[in-house]
Amino acid sequence: MKPSKEDEAIEIAFRTRNLEGNWQVRVTKVINCCDKLNRQEGLLEAEKADFLQDYALVRDIAALKKYAQSHDLSVSVQLIDQCRHAVDYFEKPVYAAKQATLFARETVFHRDDLQALFTRLSLQDGRQLNNRPK
Amino acid sequence: MQSVKRDFSHDVLYLIHSLCATAFGASSDDKLEKIFGVSMVQMEFVIDKVTQVLPEALFAPSYHHALEEIKNIFAREFIFFQVQEKWNDPHYQENLSNFIRIFARDIQRHVDRSSSQTFKMNKEF
Question: Looking at the whole model, is its pTM more than 0.90?
Answer without folding.
Answer: no
